Amino acid sequence: MNQPPYLTKMARGFARTTGLEYEDLAQEAKIAYWKAENDPRYDPHKAALATFCSMCTHRTLCNYTARQQTYATHHQIEPIDPALPDDRVPPDDAVYFRELLGALPDDAKTIVGLMFGEAAKVSTGNMREFVRKRLYRVWPRWRIDQAFRAIAQMLRTA
Fold this sequence. Notes:
With 158 residues, the chain is mainly alpha-helical. It folds into 2 domains: 6-74, no CATH class; 91-157, no CATH class. 66% of the residues lie in helices and 0% in strands. It has helices at residues 6-18, 22-37, 49-74, 91-103, 106-116, 127-135, 141-157. The radius of gyration is 22 Å and the shape is rod-shaped. The protein starts with 5 loop residues before the first helix and ends with a helix.
């Protein structure tokens, strides 16, 4: 398939504006373009093939992003309780960290819960990638990154 350069540009634009993964959008765009090229509804008297394929791809990406955002709003993850479960922390420190966790946004609290819950059982590695893999169908990448920035800011002030 000889893919036109506007497919990657269209996918990057959607990724930038929606926060969805570029790779997923590029794949959807390629599939939509291929389907449009072979669509029996194409009429050369109404539009050029490139115009028809472009419009079909654009509509497909619009529908895909709407489906992903609808899925994300219906599958929200509950934020964690800021209470620390570890009894080995000195009481003064525990109070201080409870206050810090309580000041975090709900998304950041959820990620902290994942890191100390499920991720604590996983071998050490890139925590951000672990969380992305866990939440990739629920939250867009920008939301995960924003929560990590809030956690990092909290740790810098601690």
